[in-house]
Design a protein that fits this description.
This protein is mainly alpha-helical and 74 residues long. The chain contains three helices and no strands.
Length: 74
C-alpha cells in the first residue's frame, strides 16, 4: 500500500467508510501474509471495544511490527 494515501485505508475499512480502492488495498494486504491477518484481528477487536466503550474512533493506528504503509498516515 502507498503510505502517501490521504486517508488511512485500514481505519476506513474498520469504520465501514472505505472506498472500493481502500477495500481492495486492505484485502490485498490481508491476503498477503498471515501476520497481517493476525494484526488485523487484534486491531479489529480493539476498534470494536473502543467504539462500544466510548463511542469514539481511533484517530491514529500505528505498528512497530513492520506493516508500513497500511497503518501509518502521513
Amino acid at each position: 500500500m502507498d503510505p502517501k494515501t490521504p486517508h488511512n485505508p485500514l481505519a476506513a475499512y474498520l469504520s465501514g467508510e472505505a472506498s472500493e480502492e481502500q477495500i481492495r488495498q486492505v484485502e490485498e494486504w490481508l491476503s498477503s501474509h498471515e501476520e497481517n491477518r493476525d494484526l488485523y484481528q487484534k486491531l479489529s477487536e480493539a476498534w470494536s471495544e473502543q467504539n462500544h466503550a466510548s463511542g469514539n474512533h481511533f484517530l491514529e493506528i500505528s505498528s512497530d511490527n513492520g506493516q508500513e504503509g497500511v497503518l501509518e498516515e502521513d
